[in-house]
Amino acid sequence: MSEIDAQRNEDSEPPPFQSGMAHFLWQQLPYIVALVLAIAGVAYTNVSHQPLVGYWEFLALAIGVVCVVTKWPETQGREAQLRLIWTQALHWIAVLVTMNIMLVSGVQQLLPTPATGLVLLTLLALGTFLAGVSLLSLQISFLGLAMGVAVPAISWLKQSVFFFLLGAVLLIGLGITFWVRQDRRPADASAATNNQMEA
Question: Which superkingdom does the taxonomy of this entry point to (predicted)?
Answer without folding.
Answer: Bacteria
